[in-house]
Amino acid sequence: MIVETGDYVKVKLVKEEYLGILLEAPKDEKGIILLKLDSGYNIGLDRKKILNIKVLRKAKEEKEEKISIKKQADKPNVAMILTGGTISSTLDVKTGAVKWLTSPEKLFQFYPDLFKHVNILKVEVPFMKGSENMSYNDWRKISKVAVKLLNDDNVKGLIISHGTDFLHYTSAALSFFLRNLNKPVVLTYSQRSSDRASSDASLNLECSAIASVSDIAEVMLVGHASDNDDFCYAMPGTKVRKLHSSRRDAFKVVNTTPFAKISPGYIAKISDYKTRSQVKGKVKLDDKFEEKIALVKFYPGMNPSILDYYIKNKYKGLVIEVSGLGHLAIGKEARYNLLPKIKEAISKGIIVCAAPQTIYGRLDPLVYSPGRELLNAGIIFLEDMLAETALIKLGWVLGHKEWAKSKEIVKEKMLENFSHEINDRLEE
């Protein structure tokens, strides 16, 4: 049997055997055989050391076929927005990386369990890109499409598929952009592409379908609660962060608890959330956003001149990730004293906020004198708000010109709890 790129093969060496998908080797590496192993990793093997290659399964031919999903009257209708990411990708045998699925139908072919609980009434694809390539304009696009779908009386909830790496920025943005939310908005993902047997997408999508027809009228992220295929958590969109590069349960709730625990058979409430019956009227779009904001991480020995860039370019706001309870290098002990430069930035109209580097815990600038000096200088301390959520919220608050005209109003809005971003009581 002729061995071709994309075939699932067994490669036998003198002392070892490897199973995997045959990839197309680079032109300048003609002496190498490339395999995509079952683990998902790629390996290069020296042709001279290979005794034989046996085809175990021929490559599947790609067919552009339209599949027909029958809608069942006894199932509720939901809508989907596809934006890209690993969940919408499959193996590219030429590169060993992944490529976008060519249509929603391809996604549905891989994940039929999605239809156990719901009918997919509408599917929108505003763009397909990795989350690292998104900006506030993309969050706006998603939000506008979401409002249109959510205000359709035939749609009970919304599922949004997304890349993992910067998903928590999008979930935070939607948490602020979608006002008067009266239906579930569920963002979900996968760490492993659709072609892999170990893909986490199927359970994530099935649990997302259950969440999308639940009573949780919130923006939430739904994904694996453990590294096993057993159950998922529904997590607040402003209090979640990717804390592992590759595990299925990469996303964790910080300083609070999930909304609910979900498995294919049930959904169980864990913490309080808004319900459908509590919100009347249509979902409203509030996507005002000030782009000239930045997230700055403080580190020991940081030169204050770094802040000159933001002052010179007339930025409107900064979120500084501070240490511990809320400290920066100031005073005689520090090589560089940041306080004068921070005061200069504030005097020129830049809103400066502080968020914790520690992820868990809460800022308290009143405990030690450096914190009190920074507080007196005019920094807004954002309690336990995640730094990424703080950045998005600052852009949203400053985007409202009627709020941005007064520093006191900005401070009031930044400390107002719009979407669970601030917790009075911290929980593990």
Structural class: alpha/beta
Predict the CATH topology of the largest domain. Answer: Rossmann fold
Helix content: 10-25%
CATH architecture of the largest domain: 3-Layer(aba) Sandwich
Q: Strand share of the residues?
A: 15-25%
Strand order of the largest sheet: 9-6-10-12-13-14-17-18
List low-pLDDT spans.
none
- The CATH superfamily of the largest domain bears the name L-asparaginase, N-terminal domain
End-to-end distance: 57 Å
Mean pLDDT: 89
Q: Compute the number of helices.
A: 10
The best one-word shape is globular
Q: Mind summarizing the main beta sheet?
A: 8 strands, mixed
Q: Under the CATH scheme, which class of the largest domain?
A: Alpha Beta
Number of strands: 23
Number of domains: 3
Structural key phrases:
428 residues, alpha/beta, SH3 type barrels, Rossmann fold, 3 domains, eight-stranded mixed β-sheet, five-stranded antiparallel β-sheet, 10 helices, 23 strands
Task: Give the gist of this structure.
With 428 residues, the chain is of the alpha/beta class. Helix content is 22%, strand content 25%.
